[in-house]
Structures are given as structure tokens and as C-alpha cells.
Design goal:
Helix content is 54%, strand content 8%. It is built from nine helices and four strands.
Amino acid sequence: MLKLYYNRISFNSSRVWITLLEKGLSFELVPMKLNGDQFQPEFLALNPFHQIPVLEDDGFVMVESLAILDYLEAKYPTPSLLPSDPQMLGTVKMVEILTLTQMMPPMRPLMMHSMGFSQETPEKLQEAKQNIDQVLRFFESKLADRLYFGDEQLTLADIVAGTAIPFLPSLGLPLEDYPRLKDWCDRLMARESWQQTQPTEQEITEFKMQLKILLSQRP
């Protein structure tokens, strides 16, 4: 039985969770509160880097979300979440990596600011928005008139980027300037897998309170 250690607020967890749902696999969810439970010996035995998500598959343990997605695609290839066309495959992998390396880092200060925890200057926050804008315009061009980044087929690129981009309006980055991405987001959010994995307002509030406590404990 597949077992996913996750947190509903975590983008990294959500992309694995959505992949499991889209593939129709049976799995067990193990919630992590991240209130210190990630440092418990039982969890550190699975992931000494004390991060989520972690996937267990009959004793085989995987960490790092992109590696987990590739593992799931290789072991459970139906339905496929990767295109066979080389150019489409290249686009999918490019979008996955750019989401993690170019879009997620500038999202972090904006998220902290939106929760009232940031001490970044307005100039730094504007720079973060400009960096995200560059990524979104690139994605807009790569999506073109296709339904998904893999043409007509939902792919891992849509899952990776689609767990982050829908949250950008809450960070002061409306999607109206990226009409193709906005339509794409609407298609994703209508899917059962996205609806099932969205955190509730209560969970978001509890996460903010927990984060506030953790930040107040820093020296």
C-alpha cells in the first residue's frame, strides 16, 4: 500500500497527492502537522532531511516531490502523465523545473508578506513580482492554444505548476494579464483532484497561527 506523508498547506505535498488521485491509485494519507513531528525519530528514519512529502511504497521510501512524481509515472504508467512527443516531453520537464527554481523562490517572500510576517522592503516585494511575471509570461507562450502543457493531455507539468499558480492572485498577482494561463487554471480547479486537495480556510488560519508561534520562538 502506498503511504503519503503530507501537509495540506504544502505545495510539494499537493503535487504528489494530486498525481496519486489522477492515476487512480489506492493510498494512505499520513498527515504531518509540522509542529515538531517532522523531527521525531520515526519520521527522521524515513527522511533525515525532515521534509515532506515522503512516499512509502511497500517499504521503498522516496523523498523530494519531483523524484516521487517520476517514480510514480515509471511504476504506475497508466494513465500516463507524460507525453511521448520529444518536444512536448521537453516542455513538460522544463515547466516542472522552472516552477521550482524560478517561480517558487520569489513566491515565498510574497507569501510571508501576505500573512503579515515579512519585513521585506516594498522594492524587494516588487522585484519578486517581476520575477514571477517573467515566468508566467514564458509559461503563457509555452501553453499557447493547448489545453495543457502536454497538448490535450494532463501532465506532470500541469500538476507541478498548477499547485502554485492558482494561489498567485492571493499574493497580489491577478491572472487576468495571462488569459491562457487563467483559462488553464480554471480547467485544473474544476478537476476533482484539485478540489479534493485544496486546504480549507480553517486549515489556512491554523497554519498561520502555527507559523506565527514558530517565528516568535526564533532567537
